[in-house]
Amino acid sequence: MTRGVALSLLALSVPAAAIASLFVGATPLDAHQVLRALARPEAPDTVTTIVWQLRLPRISVAATVGACLALGGAMLQGMLRNPLVDPYLTGVSAAAAAAVAVATVAGVSVAATPAVGFVAGLAAALVVAALARRGGGIDPQRLILAGVSLSMLFAAIVTLVLIRAQSTGAAGTIVAWLAGSMAGRSWRDLAVTAPYAVLGTALALSTAPALDAMRIGESRARAVGVNVHRAQWLILAASSLLAASSVVLAGLVGFIGLLVPHIARRLTGTEARMLFPACAAIGAVLCMVADAVCRRIVAPAELPIGVLLALIGAPAFLYLYLHPSGRPGLAAER
Amino acid sequence: MIDLDALAVRIGGRNLLSNVTARIQSGELVALIGPNGVGKTTLLRAIAGLHPCEAGVVRVMGRDLRSLRARERATRVAFVTTEETVFETLPLRELVAMARFARAKWWGWTRERSDEDAIDRAIAAVGMQSLADRDVGGLSAGERQRAWIALGLAQETPILLLDEPTTHLDVRVAQDILKLLARLARDGKTILCALHDLNEAAAYADRIALLGDKRLLAIAPPQRLLRGPLVERVYGIALDRIELPDGTLRLFTPPRRHRGCAVEERAH
């Protein structure tokens, strides 16, 4: 299968997964009902409300979260030449989790906690970036060390807050957020986050040619005209924005950012120009499907998407690593 | 054209080069020679804009290097290094295509016909057409070296800097590459090429630049520079010379005394 065919199929799979997800939920709907509801968004009946106000926003949120995380993961893995990196490396998720935990215990309204998480996540990314700075650019080792250290610090804060919160009953809210979920997300949530996700995606796409050239080594990339330092900062900014956007929308959704770039590389190779769109599509599809499964598998209750993705993602990741494809992988040493 | 005016390079608190002044004209192939660790690579990297200059000025095609953005610089100067770096495996043609980065439109997602032609010409120039679709990771050291040279050629810059381009090459391919460089210089390129083989430098260079003690000691035509005692002093060895009928010098390290010693030692 050529890369062009693979990309075309992936592009088609996004609307296909979205349409399929419309049929999954507590209320069974048939094709006729869904089509009629889609055609008349202003109709005052229950089916239209379910389709337009519950399922579609939720599906859109899932697609956005999946695309953001996969794209962020692909960028950071490419820049750091490290296949074990995910977009949470920059401390975004850990800081957001700590901030949301503290805010929940402190009685901040549920509506405001995503914003608290977003700001804390980006602040942590800034601190990590400052610690990783060297000679105008970013030192990959320092970035990983700073990101991991800061994430551990914030994880400790979350644990502390959880212990304290057990008596107040806030622990359940915090744990639910930590496990990731798209339940109850509205168009408004998406509208608030979309500008950051779009900005992150635009930055990501603008760095693709530079990231491709950096595959021949930093020295040679500079010699052919890449401003390596600027590309590094843009990649860090874009991946942080993408991670923060997804955290605001769905809490902590693991494994997508780590796993999807590996799947995409098998289909399209390592060239960022092909890899980025492939990652966005696979991430979106995977997240939409996973969310649909979470709605269905223990209905009427819901499985947290983070739990499902970890259950599927860990063995899938191991399989991909133990069964290398013929295609070039990341940072394959000559 | 390359102009170096009192150039000094200092990295990590160490002076690596000081007070290098020289002018290399368009259409000239200059070989850069000198013992290991004397600053040949540092000088090439400084001219390529990969090392900041502590003092002095580098001008490429009349423009101060510091005033050029990365892309502008890469359309004027190409730097071929054969240092082995970790990189993802990718087909030779895609690797050479990286050379066109600086000429891509701002979105840079597609390649023009002129880019494809430049890539084809560069791959043909190093005789690797049949390997164009092979993964670079699967090539031999010599083939990979030619790939790096093709990367530099595909930039199609007026100035070409090469750091020991013949190191891993067999005699025939090394000759082909040096002939190619001489032809490119005749066509108007400015070429500065670090070489270890003094005979290669003598045979192909218009002038030789001799580095020693972190300075440029001399820059002169091969006949003049290699005939004098300076080369022997810098390298710390004695050299025998033979002049070929076409006037080219051939240099040899005198072997007899050393071999004689070895034979005598064994005989005892």
Task: Describe this protein's structure.
The complex is a heterodimer of chains A (334) and B (268). Chain A is an all-alpha fold. Chain A has one domain: ABC transporter involved in vitamin B12 uptake, BtuC (Orthogonal Bundle), CATH 1.10.3470.10. Chain A contains 13 helices and two strands; from the N terminus they run H-H-H-H-H-E-E-H-H-H-H-H-H-H-H. Chain A has a two-stranded antiparallel sheet with strand order 1-2. By secondary structure, chain B is of the alpha/beta class. Chain B has one domain (2-223): P-loop containing nucleotide triphosphate hydrolases (Rossmann fold, 3-Layer(aba) Sandwich). Chain B contains ten helices and twelve strands. A six-stranded mixed beta sheet of chain B has the order 6-7-8-3-9-10, sandwiched between helices. In chain B, helix 4 (113-125) packs antiparallel against helix 5. The longest helix of chain B has 16 residues, at 171-186. Chain B is globular. Chain A binds chain B through residues 81, 206, 208-210, 212-213, 215-227, 269-271, 273, 328-334, and chain B through 48-50, 69-71, 73-75, 78-79, 81, 83-90, 94-95, 98-99, 101-102, 104, 107-109, 135-137, 144, 148, 151-152, 155.
Summarize it.
Chain A has 334 residues and is mainly α.
Q: Architecture of chain B, CATH level 2? A: 3-Layer(aba) Sandwich
Main beta-sheet strand count, sense and barrel state of chain B: 6 strands, mixed
Tally of alpha and pi helices of chain B:
10
Shape designation of chain B: globular
The name CATH uses for the topology of chain A is ABC transporter involved in vitamin B12 uptake, BtuC
Topology (elements, then pairings):
The complex is a heterodimer of chains A (334) and B (268).
Chain A: H1 3-22, H2 31-39, H3 46-80, H4 92-105, H5 113-132, E1 133-134, E2 137-138, H6 140-165, H7 171-179, H8 187-213, H9 218-223, H10 228-250, H11 256-268, H12 272-297, H13 305-322
Antiparallel strand pairs in A: 1-2
Helix pairs in contact in A: 1-3, 1-12, 2-3, 3-8, 3-10, 3-11, 3-12, 4-5, 4-6, 4-7, 5-6, 5-10, 8-10, 11-12, 11-13
Chain B: E1 2-11, E2 14-24, E3 29-33, H1 40-47, E4 55-60, E5 63-64, H2 70-74, E6 77-81, H3 92-97, H4 113-125, H5 141-154, E7 159-163, H6 171-186, E8 190-194, H7 198-204, E9 207-212, E10 215-220, H8 222-227, H9 230-235, E11 240-243, E12 249-252, H10 256-267
Helix pairs in contact in B: 4-5
